[in-house]
């Protein structure tokens, strides 16, 4: 495959956009090579500016559960566009989308829309702090919740669990309120609660997708629930990635644990910029204008974005076998990949829930961020480049989750396994 036009476009972009990209992971830094510039999507496929076609397992990092150019979403968006792009005043579409989400989840009485996952989580945390009148939060190493200040935190030095900034520009005065615990390790959470009596909330990706694909143990989530209850803290499920993807009800359709607040993004906008956070009425009513906790957005609940979200969600709700079909595809793929890797002696850890799947080049099962970091990223880079050459587009990092979409069929999956067999052989 030739990438000359992508390379040229990348050079031009680098002159005027830092790193040539508007979100760092797109730059292909951890797998080498230059990012592909995309001309268009078509169902399961991406087409780059050189005219190369790839089966796309990234799907815009999650939003496109039906694949690219879904006709129903397309039609709804075009219809909305013709009525005006934005009003800064309420529309019925917002209520309609809110109603359909609230009727799906018993623990969500009210929901507010924003324009990104980052905003959804940032706002949910402010609300949790406002509701509990406490300042500290607990998050987990390897979980990503967007790029707001309080959440760009890494383990501090020494044995303490208080975090330090993971990026310049984030004041340590802020991150000292974020305590870091280990995923799937309830003892580390208990330690955080011992270190602070000021915990407003625990925020967790119930199915972690941002350290690679790492589902929580059911018992871990249950124990988080009891710890939060015992200490008067709220439990927030960040379902920006898993929402409507892991199952119709996201992680809440997979696990029994009931969180106090839930954040959404990605699939909820069907490809348009939408985020949301919701929960019980008594919590949500603390939000401005009814309550004192301030939160706002000029383009929040944008009518075009709502139209895309509604068209996407309606299709998901109507199609009762959607997630069963998607999970069958994801499992077919990961089991095929694992078998072909095994054939040439490459250890591969795999997993899938609903339309989310992941694989680690790792000798041992991955339960947390430390385990994930022991993966062979050089092997991943070789796999990624080899698969691109074969026409399969995977997330450009070992520490990302991949997705199947409804536009994929078993033939594409089997071709992918065949191509992987070839690439694995070249890797040993
Ligand atoms: C993607 C993601 C976010 C951030 O969403 P953006 O729309 O990129 O701001 C937050 N939390 C999780 C779990 C995510 O996967």
UniProtKB/TrEMBL annotation:
Biological pathway: Porphyrin-containing compound metabolism; protoporphyrin-IX biosynthesis; 5-aminolevulinate from L-glutamyl-tRNA(Glu): step 2/2
Required cofactor names: pyridoxal 5'-phosphate
Record has Cytoplasm as a keyword: yes
Domain of life: Bacteria
N6-(pyridoxal phosphate)lysine: residues bearing it: 266
Catalytic activity as recorded in UniProt: (S)-4-amino-5-oxopentanoate = 5-aminolevulinate
Subcellular location: Cytoplasm
Main location: cytoplasm
Keyword Hydrolase appears in the UniProt entry: no
PANTHER family xref list: GLUTAMATE-1-SEMIALDEHYDE 2,1-AMINOMUTASE, GLUTAMATE-1-SEMIALDEHYDE 2,1-AMINOMUTASE 1, CHLOROPLASTIC-RELATED
Subunit annotation: Homodimer.
Descriptive protein name: Glutamate-1-semialdehyde 2,1-aminomutase
